[in-house]
Design goal:
about 85% helix; about 100 residues; mainly alpha; about 0% strand
């Protein structure tokens, strides 16, 4: 029972981190660029959120493949592509104005 709860929590953590990184990435470039290097928000995104998101995605994918939960794996990958697509779309929509 506890393993199931840990897995559900990891899935929620993955979704929250994915949404946070997508939101930060969709901000205008002026916010993410400092004077000579990326701002603290951009460093937080690059050094913490993206690696953690990738590690969680790989870990949860391995767990799903071991337990033959292909539907849950496909849902997670679909959410990943939707969030990344929307954040890229917003980024370039803001850039065009």
């Amino acid at each position: 029972m506890k393993r199931c709860l840990k897995k559900i929590n990891l899935n929620k953590v993955f979704i929250i981190i994915l949404l946070a990184s997508g939101t930060i990435y969709s901000l205008p470039s002026k916010v993410l660029i400092g004077v000579y290097s990326p701002s603290l928000l951009a460093w937080f995104l690059v050094a913490f959120l993206v690696p953690l998101m990738i590690i969680l995605l790989i870990w949860l994918s391995i767990i799903d493949l071991r337990k033959n939960r292909i539907k849950l794996l496909l849902e997670r990958l679909l959410i990943l592509t939707i969030v990344l697509g929307l954040s890229l779309g917003f980024k370039y929509l803001i850039k065009s104005f």
